[in-house]
Amino acid sequence: MSNQIRIIGGEWRSRQISFDDAPGLRPTPARVRETLFNWLQTDILSSRCLDLYAGSGALGLEAASRGARQVVQVENNPTSCQNLRQNIARLAASQVKVVQQDVDKFLSSPAQTFDLVFLDPPFGQNLIAQTCQLLETNGWLADYAKIYLESERNQPITDLPPNWRVLKAKTAGDVSYSLLQKQSDTFAATNSLK
């Protein structure tokens, strides 16, 4: 069964994208996306974005609609990847690329740096801490990159890299979401002394 969600802003505002039901797939709700992209409004234009556990593709396509220069969507579900490619073709979103691969395998390959990372893994699998460590240690983040995390409301996020700082955090229903920023190495060293 095909489901649809609407892009909120930018070039493709009000355009529908479709996705199929898949295990663990829960598109980020419209009001959460609206809040997130209000937080990021000065960061999106010409940015390089990495959309991990892309699912419906809502976050990456929203970023592309709002002027991101490059969006890489990583998803391991073949049906979801097919839907992502169909949505990209319908929107003529040439700046968006889909990689069908497990996220941990992708993050263990040679890195390129990104300005923004969207991290919204399936709930109940404790994937956030491991994924964040791979992003940091394997060199995927540009200096002062921003990272969006979405998780279960009752699941505290722990074991984040020490040089990441929470900029914003909110909850909506069963979802907890936050925006973090990678700081300089001197920030991490200073914080580890406290």
Textual characterization of the structure:
The structure is a single chain. With 194 residues, the protein is an alpha/beta fold. 28% of the residues lie in helices and 31% in strands. It has six helices and nine strands, in the order ββαβαβαβαβαβββα. It has helices spanning 30-39, 58-65, 78-91, 103-107, 128-137, 185-192, and strands at residues 2-6, 16-20, 48-52, 70-75, 96-100, 114-119, 141-152, 164-172, 175-182. Strands 5-4-3-6-7-9-8 form a seven-stranded mixed sheet, with helices on both faces. Strands 1-2 form a two-stranded antiparallel sheet. The radius of gyration is 16 Å and the shape is globular. It starts with a strand and ends with a helix.
**End-to-end gap:** 52 Å
CATH class: Alpha Beta
The amount of helix comes to 25-40%
Would you tell me the structural class of the helices and strands? alpha/beta
Under the CATH scheme, which architecture would be assigned? Answer: 3-Layer(aba) Sandwich
Portion in beta strands = 25-35%
Tell me the CATH superfamily: Vaccinia Virus protein VP39
Q: Give the strand order of the largest sheet, numbering strands 1, 2, ... along the chain.
A: 5-4-3-6-7-9-8
Low-confidence stretches: none
Instruction: Summarize model confidence as the mean pLDDT.
Output: 88
Question: How would you sum up the global shape?
Answer: globular
Instruction: Report the strand count.
Output: 9
Question: Helical element count?
Answer: 6
- Provide the number of structural domains: 1
